Amino acid sequence: MSLPPVIASLTRHKLTALLLVIQVSLTCAIVCNVAFMIVNRTSQLRQLSGVAEDELVMIESTDLDQNAQPLVRHKADVAALSAITGVKSAAAVDALPFNGNDWSNGISLVPSATAKITATAFNGTPGELATLGLRLIEGRDFQPNEYIPVDTAHDWAGIDHVPATIVTRALADQLFPGQEPLGKTIYPGNGPVRIVGVVDHLVRPHAHDGAQNDYATLFPLLPDGNDITYVMRTSPQDRDRVLKEATDVLNRLDDNRILRHPQTFTQLRADYFHRSRTMISLLIAAAGGLLLVTALGIAGLASFWVQQRRRSIGIRRAIGATRHDILRYFQNENFLIVGAGVVLGSLLAYALNLALMQHYEQPHLPPLYLGVGALSLWLLGQLAVLGPALRAAAVPPVVATRAT
Fold first, then answer.
1. Could you tell me whether strands 104-107 and 117-123 are parallel, antiparallel, or unpaired per DSSP bridges?
2. Which among 2, 66, 72, 119 has most CB atoms closer than 10 A?
């Protein structure tokens, strides 16, 4: 069956067809962006942190003595924690993947450059790499004489004097594409810092998009604030015991402190992505509900048109139209309506994506999602119209002889 008769029939039902086109277009725009958000969030849930997740436990400590010497306190605490049975190594750090404590710096290759790459600075006591389980793929770990205080009291001024850094492979590739990063100089602050090592992977405390999620530096800067996170590496089966003993050890050393969030890294990760999992569930429910409403709208309109056209369908059957012709007529009609909605919906999808990019840092919507969305809506339309179309095809020719 040719399309002109179908188009002519739709022109006699302009308002009804237009409303369905608008419904399909809005569904297309929303579902394409929602699907992209779901895939993006799901990929974040699966991303590797770069640390030995199954072996890490941690506890946050806040010293209430404002006159305490943090560097001395941290050294004593780490030594006591390392002595716990089953602890392979321990370190005091100021940030971890997924803990939200993100100290980011603009890194340039020349002093005072305006164009900079933002990367997270991870600082900790000696043994941080071994404790976290980071894989050093090039270069070396920090030497004892390279460690200096963060100098928190002077606005983290230690960043201007630190001599060395270890960077992630993603950051090295971005800073020095196609070059050997070892020995190169970068400027995370006012002073030059030499790259002495490269780790394979280390995710930032806050999730970012693409390769930026892995832009991280490690500095031999000793945390010197009263707030600190102690990390211990142990066997997976010993994590709960070690965590309990660590709390007791720290309280015995000094009870003039507040210990918070004793947990495994697995718990830290689960807490960080709790909102993402909830959002994914809500987005799936919203997209599914919207698709269901659209399918019901298509089926309802098709059923209404079948009832309105029973006599004309009977006439077509009487002059030689087969059941297949009638079925194909309604499928072509639906294809045109959904097709117009998909075209308009694709434009709306990009407009919506631009708004999300501007206000919520949503990545650019890949064209693949528009193609999949269009195909899905066409398939949904064909399935929704199939029942009414089969009823129309079952209309006998004798209906043409009945009075209206």
1. antiparallel
2. 119
Confidence of residue 1 (pLDDT cuts 50, 70, 90): very low
* Average pLDDT value over all residues in the chain: 87
Q: Name all contacts of 295-300 with Cβ < 8 Å and 24+ positions apart.
A: 295/380, 295/381, 295/383, 295/384, 296/384, 297/20, 297/23, 298/20, 298/24, 298/334, 298/337, 298/338, 298/380, 298/381, 298/384, 298/385, 299/384, 299/385, 299/387, 299/388
Residues 255, 257, 260, 262, Cα dihedral to 10°: -40
71, with CB counted inside 10 A (0-12, 13-18, 19+), is middle
Distance CA 390, CA 393 (A): 5
- Percent above pLDDT 90 for the chain: 47
Please enumerate in sequence order all residues whose Cβ is within 8 A of that of 370, keeping only pairs 6 or more positions apart, or say none: 32, 346, 349
373: three-class secondary structure by DSSP: helix
Is there a contact between 48 and 201 (Cβ–Cβ < 8 Å)? yes
Which of 261, 342, 379, 383 is closest to 22 using CA atoms? 342
| DSSP per residue, 340-366 | HHHHHHHHHHHHHHHHHHHHH-PPPPP
The per-residue DSSP string of 276-292 comes to HHHHHHHHHHHHHHHHH
Query: How far is 226 from 249, CA to CA, in rounded Å?
Result: 18
Specify the pLDDT at position 403: 47
Q: Look up residue 153 and give its two tokens.
A: 């009291």
CA 94, 95, 100, 104 dihedral sign is positive
Q: What is the pLDDT of residues 164-217, one digit of tens each?
A: 999 999 999 999 999 999 999 999 988 999 999 999 999 999 877 777 889 999
Q: Does the structure show a pLDDT above 80 at 402?
A: no
Strands 148-149, 221-222: pairing kind = parallel
